[in-house]
Amino acid sequence: MKKMKLNKITTALITGLVGCAITSINAQTTSSQTSNSPTLEVIEITSQKRVQTLQEVPATVTAVSGALLDEYGIDDLFEMADLVPGMVFSRAPDDGLALTLRGLGTPARTQSFDQSVALFQDGMFVGKGRMYSAAFFDVERIEVIKGTQSTLLGKNTSLGAISVISKKPSDVFEGNIKVGREFENGGWSVDGGLDIPLADNFSVRVAGHYIDQNGWVENLATGRDVPEDNDTGLRITALYEPSDSLTITGVYQRSDSERIGNGYQFVDNGNYFSDEVLGIIGEAQLDDTKTAVCSQCPNQESYHDTSVDTYNVTVEKSLEDVTLTSITSYANYDIEFYDDFDFGNAFDEFTYVTTGQVDYYSTYFKRGESYNQFSQELRLASEERDDFDYMMGLFYFKSDWDSLEEQFFNTPNFPPDNAGQLFNGSFGNDFKQKTDTISAFIQADMYITDKLTVSGGLRYTDENKDVQFDRTPGELSTLWNTVVNPPFESELNFQDSFLNGNVSAKYDWSKNTVVYASYGLGSKTGGFAESAEVISADPSLNVEDGGARVATEETSTYELGSKMVLLDNSMNLNLALFYTDIDDFQETSFFVTGGSAAFLTQNTDVESKGFEIDSKWQITDDVQLSGAVTFADSTHKDDGSDLAQAPKWTGNIGYLYTTELEAWDMHMRSSGFVRYRDSMVSQINETYPSDSLTTLDFTLGLFSNDDTWEVMLVAQNVTNERASDFSGPPAAPIGAILGAPTGDQGITSETLNIQRTVKLQVSYHFY
Q: How far apart are CA 752 and CA 757, in angstroms?
């Protein structure tokens, strides 16, 4: 059994939080504070499809306000993860999502896998991971709910859900604009919104977003600071309230995202490259410079172009003591990706060793995808009954996904006795999938006594996937694209149905203390993995038999927790213990054994157990302290090895200080946070490790007392701490002939975490 080691940061976080808890509980019984004491804001959330306060929901939920996102200049969900303990969100080289909650999530490589942490945008289920990186702006709040939430939120919420709620129109003419300038790396951002009341019961909000941002890694070969991001977004929201009992909200959003280059670079883990070789390929260490060229890619860099359109109409109708809700949505996206998968200045090592001649080459993938989805949800919910409340509904979902990934392997002369054919040659994985899903659900909250509430619900889901999966070799036939990756044509079908559910008991221990216990059973549908090697040339077989078929994933989550409001409503303290067990976890990861290495797709059994503590304390009207820590031990059940992207400890502790500057008719606000992420691995077999990371963030701002203007300085990762966000092998066997072994002890490709940023933001709110 592994020994748990606590470093100084972790110990400080736990000590501080436990100290707050002990102080708070003692003070709760002896407090003589008056009713004029500072109090925390009561936060309302809708992650369980009802308006509830954060402290009454029997689940672990983190709510991040739009104001906090603006304050830190958060532009996407990847950056938002820093604000949520227990959440890790990184980009794989092809923009696959390495998203985990409590150490569990869907692996990054296989795009045909459904996500087990679902995303909802204004109530619309987002069915594809590519859309998680769409433009992110004009947000009212984000709610991250952890654990299995299958009854109300549906399939693919077996490990949690993220709900993004955008700002809605107000009934007065007003607007806002924010301009930001990033000084450390260079870049601009502009965000704004305008509320236009067109009638007493009809108003529109138009919001826009633009960012042109340079990256934190300089590519010495191309002269670019990568990744270079250019994002634009437009959202139009219409709110129509023809009567007190009827509300209609329509939302259209368009986002275009262009990313040039990435931070991935060679890392030489054993000094296998001589100074002479380093002179040929550039440096090989994890830092803020790299040398990489992809001659076949636009701008000679990896290149990602993503366009997303979403349409959503929500109708809410009150019918005496029930509310009928309809959510109708449609979404589509198109992408064009070029990815440099040798991650550097690769060259023909055999020719160099034997003749001294240097011949460069590129291994790259080209990927095009188009996707569209339609969904319809109808639900009926009771309103504040005395004996019990209920919610029931139907959900229909349909999607169509076309993906063509062409892999161009151009590695010459490896192995030397194989006529240069093993890692040479191209092929394409052409994958088309149509999905139809229908489900029905019902949940009831039964008020057994004034203190005890028992909730239970069931959800039945039936899903069908029709797949056409073809692999076609390139014009030149090689061992690589005919034997190692054999061609095939296939028409496949995957159908499954399952009954999921949740049950919980919540007890009001006292006026300000709630304890709860919950259990959830959830599923994530199986199907076919378009990234599977399919060495059998028959994708209908299970992945363990050389095919592409993966089984449905089933998750059970147990949680025991308490939510406390202490010190005359000036402190919240939340505690939770959890255990999650997954049968047939869908996993794709790089697998190294001895001298062999390959991507492995499999169904396996995993588990995660641990605890979470979070607290917020309004010490005075001017000073607020907050902190959180998550411990999650996430492992494979067969051998106890750690899962990928699953740090055991994550946490943060920080302050918020606000004071009025009466002489200048303004106030000042400052905040600071220390954020910690434990060491972790990026691939199975506990390979490709990343060091722990502790970052320091500060903000300092001036605001007018009437909230018409503000000036904010935002500094993140002030001390420029460095660690790998994601790590894996180059697709080509870099360094093999020069003596580098296979796996993470040889030559790896790693991406550096975001380095120090210093941004000045100026905002103006007009009426």
A: 14
